[in-house]
Amino acid sequence: MRSKEHIKTVILALLVLMSLVLTYMTWKFTPDLQTVDKETNKDHASQSIGKTNNVDMSEVITPYQIIYSKADHSEGMVASRQNVSTVLKPLKNQHVTHSDQMHSDHNLIIPDLTDEFLVLDFTYDMPLATYLGDVLNISAKVPSNFKFNRLLIDQSHDNKIQLYAISKNRHDVVRMTLSSKASSVNKTVAALKKDMEPYSEMITNKDTIDSATHIFAPKSPKHLKSYRTIYNHISVDKMNSVLFNDSVVVRSAKNGATTYNNNTGVANYDNKTEKYKYNNLSEDKATSKNMHETIPGTFDYINEHGGFTDDFRLFHTDNKSGQLTYQMFLNGRPTFNSGDLNTVKVSWSEDGIYSYARALLKSNVTIDSGEKDEKLQGAEKVRSALANNPNIDFEKVNNITIGYKRVDQSDKDDIEVQRNSEFKPHWYIEYDGKWYAYDNDGGLE
C-alpha cells in the first residue's frame, strides 16, 4: 500500500516538473521570423515580373511634350522623366484657392491668359480631379466629370500660379489659382529653357486658332539618333502567378499557342508573337468605364507586380470600352509598333483587373545603333503636305509629334535573348483619334 502511494507521489512530481518545463519553454519560445520573412518575400517575388512599386505615378501619368510659349514664339522639349519632375515640382502639394469652369461654343479664348506660359500636352483624356489628387497631391473642388488633355501653367494678376485645364475638344477649360507664387515657375522655365528647341504653332481647324489651342511640333528636328534594344523574356508562369488566384490548367497547346485557365480566368500565350492576354471569366463583373477608378487602379496593380518593366506611360484611354493603353517610351518619346509589342493594355472592374494584354518581353540592353544622326522634314512641311492631301481631312489632325518606329528582328540562336529591335525616329500623326506613321509623301501609313 505504501509502495503504491510512493509511486503515485513520484508520478505526480514528474508531471508537475514536466508542466514547469513546458511552461518555461513556451515563455522562452521565439518564432523564426527571419524564415517567415524569407518565405513571404519569396512568395511576393514569385508574383511579380519585374521590380515592384518601382515608379511614381507622376512618371506614368505624364505629358508627352513640354512647350514654352511667349508672344508669337514657341520652344519645346520632350517630356523626359527629369523634365516632367522639374515642371511639376512647384505645383505639387499646393492648395487651390479658387477655381471656376468656362465654356465656349466656338473657338476657346481665355481672356486673362498672359502671353507667356508653359504647356503640358497629353495624348489622352485625363480626369482633372484624379490628376490633381493622385499625381500632384492637390485637394481641390473641381467638376468631378471634367477631363482634360492640355494643362497651361500661367500666373494670375497677383503673381500666383494659375492653371488652365483644357478639354480635348477645346471648348471647355477649368481655371485654378494655386497658393504658391509664380516665381517658382519662372525658375523652372529658366532651368529648362537652355535645352529647348524651336517649335512650330499649327492651326488644323477652327478649334485650334488661339494661342491656348494651337498644335505644337518640333520646327526643324535634327540630330536624332537610332537605337537598338535587346530583350529578355518574361516567364509565362510568372504572368500566370500574377493574374490567377490559384493553380491553372493547360487547356490546349497547339502550333505554339497555349491556353491556361481556372475557375476565375483564361489566358492565351503565343510563343511566336510572344503576346500574352488574360481575361476574367466572372459573369457578374463588367469593365469599369469610370476613369477615376480605372487609372489609379490599373496603375497600382501593374506597379505592385512589377509590370512597368520599361518606361511605360499612359497613352490612351477608351472611355467607351474602359480599356487603357500604357505605351513604351524611349528617351522621352513614344514608341510605335504595329504588332502591339510595346504596349500594356488593361481594363478594370469593381473587384480588380478585368483584362491584361502585353508582350512577354522586357528591355535588357539599349544602345546607340551607331548609325548617322537623322534629320526629319520640318513641321511646316509636314503640315503643308497633310493639308494638301485630298485623301486626308486636315481638320481631323489632332497631334503631330516625333516618335520611334520599332522594327523587330528575331534572333533564335540565343535561348535567353531571342529578340532585338531597332528604334528609328519618325513623324507620327494623331488623325481622327488614332495614331499613324507619316509616310514622307504627305500621307499616312
UniProtKB/TrEMBL annotation:
**All residue ranges annotated as the Regulatory protein YycH domain in the record:** 5-440
| Highest rank taxon of the organism | Bacteria
Q: Which InterPro entries match?
A: YycH (IPR009996), YycH/YycI_2 (IPR042274)
Classification via CDD domains: YycH_N
* Protein name as it appears in the record: Two-component system activity regulator YycH
Q: Which organism is it from?
A: Staphylococcus pettenkoferi
